[in-house]
Amino acid sequence: MLKIGVIGCGFIGGQICKAIDKGVINAELYAISDSSKSKVLELTASLKRYSPASMTIEELLQNVDFVIESASQKAVRLIVPQALEAGRDVMVMSVGALADEELRERLFRLAEQNNCKLYFPSGAVAGIDGINSASAAGISSVTLTTRKPPMGLVGAPHVEALGIKLETIEKETLLFEGTASEAVKAFPANVNVAATISLAGIGFERTKVRVIADPTLSRNVHEITVEGEFGKLSTRVENLPSPENPKTSYLAALSAISTLKKILSPVQIGT
Ligand SMILES: NC(=O)C1=CN([C@@H]2O[C@H](COP(=O)(O)OP(=O)(O)OC[C@H]3O[C@@H](n4cnc5c(N)ncnc54)[C@H](OP(=O)(O)O)[C@@H]3O)[C@@H](O)[C@H]2O)C=CC1
Ligand SMILES: O=C([O-])CC(=O)C(=O)O
Description:
By secondary structure, this protein is of the alpha/beta class. It has helices at residues 11-21, 37-46, 57-63, 73-85, 101-113, 128-134, 157-162, 180-186, 192-200, 250-264, and strands at residues 3-7, 28-33, 53-54, 66-69, 89-92, 118-119, 139-148, 173-179, 207-213, 220-228, 231-239. The strands form 2 sheets. A 6-stranded parallel beta sheet has the order 3-2-1-4-5-6, with helices on both faces. It has a 5-stranded mixed beta sheet with strand order 8-9-7-10-11, covered by helices on one side.
């Protein structure tokens, strides 16, 4: 059975571990790791079937078959190259780290050299399947518009750098407009989806992103519009935020669970 190691035991990592524990994913939850010891203890205590070892990242990479990064963009830079060098397949949630061209090329090269797979789940958006299909011909434009309740944007470097007072926002306010490359640095915990869209479509410099704070919302809303030789595609998802981490939508965790199920299944549906 595939031995899985999860790095980052917050909302997404926790949901993945619980799904394995419930038998939704037919794999062994072998090890977990987090910079916060209390998160590891809390998660382990919530599991019934598995009692994963709490390991350092180095130990985990040597002992599992499949590594899941559900921690942070910084963690991707530290962990994913090592994981690929150790010959492990890796699922990456903090996809925004791949806006760094040098890192991206290094990871893709290491995956090829070591015969490993890198997986980027669709996350909190719908339409990655359509963008993948469309990219087999020409795509002329891709736009992501993300709307979140203001407090779901707390701590974003863009908000802090501009001194934006989120608690005083009374109406829909455009906070950011730029490339996906700029967006994932400005909002590293809010628009990793922009990176996944860029990887599937026309890259980080040509993908346009708008981030809007909307106090009337209780959901995280992502809209994608794509135009190309195939025609036009539009998707809109109104995501329930995680009660534990309002920056993250429940669908993002479900997409990771679904990707794992797909990897382990003999039947593959969708692009
Ligand atoms: N691809 C997508 O569509 C989406 C991606 N994401 C991204 O996925 C990641 C996980 O999201 P989520 O579960 O909601 O985040 P959480 O903040 O709930 O959990 C992340 C956990 O990882 C820990 N962590 C951070 N850095 C490291 C590290 N270097 N080594 C070990 N542990 C670390 C954090 O600890 P501490 O709190 O101490 O930092 C925290 O416990 C985030 O980067 C998020 O931005 C989220 C939503 C959608
Ligand atoms: O979960 C979401 O709504 C999207 C998100 O935070 C991200 O892409 O980083």
